[in-house]
Design a protein that fits this description.
Blueprint: H1 3-13, E1 18-25, E2 35-43, H2 60-65, E3 71-79, H3 91-101, H4 109-117, E4 121-124, E5 128-136, E6 146-149, H5 150-163, H6 165-170, H7 178-199
Parallel strand pairs: 3-5, 5-6
Antiparallel strand pairs: 1-2, 2-3, 4-5
Helix pairs in contact: 1-5, 3-4, 5-7
């Protein structure tokens, strides 16, 4: 994963999702060119964790766009540079991802994919919700998908690390990502610096 994909991965993971990065889309049937989905993710409705997994820990903006009381599937693309919205979430790629998510039988995938092509998110049988999510640099693009600015993702991660600073720092080496370990370490250094400043009276 590149740095943007790593930030996106941890953003989803710290919002209760189980993530599959770089999901390979093989050339088969309607898929004419091999590709990948940057992150394919699933979130069960009853996610809970004492450290960083409570209802007030989730991103409020994401909660406003998705129904966290259902099982959610996310087809996520990440862009750190220029991109064309027309090249995002191609129908054949979305259908391939829907098959992997497994919320509907194989012979229903095309119908759900057709519905999702014109919508940002769809509900399935009152039990599941599937969405297309773009995380990218820049402003909010005009497209049929949910959008989250990469800077907002980083801001969320920094806030989460700061909220559980002691626990995250203590266990930082257990996280598999060097990028995330570094974010935790930098947060701790900044906290120490602020404490020393406060002790000196703000000098």
């Amino acid at each position: 994963m590149n740095y943007g994909e790593e930030y996106a991965y941890w953003y989803l993971r710290l919002n209760g999702f189980f993530c599959l990065p770089n999901f390979v889309i093989h050339r088969f049937g309607d898929v004419r060119d091999s590709s990948d989905c940057d992150i394919l993710a699933i979130r069960p409705p009853h996610v809970f964790e004492e450290i960083g997994g409570k209802p007030d820990d989730w991103d409020h903006k994401l909660q406003e766009q998705l129904y966290f009381r259902r099982t959610i599937g996310v087809i996520c693309e990440v862009k750190t540079g220029g991109y064309s919205t027309k090249e995002l979430f191609k129908p054949e790629h979305v259908n391939y991802c829907l098959g992997r998510l497994g919320f509907v039988p194989r012979d229903h995938v095309a119908a759900v994919g057709k519905d999702l092509a014109s919508r940002k998110a769809v509900d399935i049988a009152g039990n599941y919700q599937v969405c297309k999510l773009l995380i990218a640099n820049g402003g909010d693009p005009d497209g049929v998908f949910l959008f989250c600015a990469l800077e907002s993702v980083i801001k969320f991660l920094r806030a989460r690390v700061a909220k559980y600073g002691k626990e995250k720092y203590r266990d930082r080496m257990f996280f598999s990502s060097i990028l995330f370990q570094s974010m935790i370490d930098i947060a701790a250094l900044n906290c120490d610096a602020q404490s020393r400043m406060a002790e000196r009276g703000g000098d």
